[in-house]
Predict the 3D structure of the following.
Amino acid sequence: MEASRRCYAAKCYLYVADAWYLPEKVNVGYDISFTRHFYKPQPLRLLEEIRAEILALEREAEELLEKVIGPADRNNNRGGQQCLNQERKKNLRSR
């Protein structure tokens, strides 16, 4: 029991000065944080790379839509496609 108090004091009081515990609730064993020990963070992608991927996905989606519903009539603004494209371009430019 005294060993657990010393261990608790040595490890916990370093971080929280007024820490406390109930000895009758102490369990014997280990809790290993796998994330803390084994997680290797991936580097963040560049914004230009992400933007290019989004635009490529939009083009692919538009091609698939054209296969399903036919080409959009740009003059009549069929389905609001032209309006959507212009709105997307404005949003991308404003970022």
About this structure: The two ends are 60 Å apart (CA to CA). The first helix runs from residue 2 to 12.
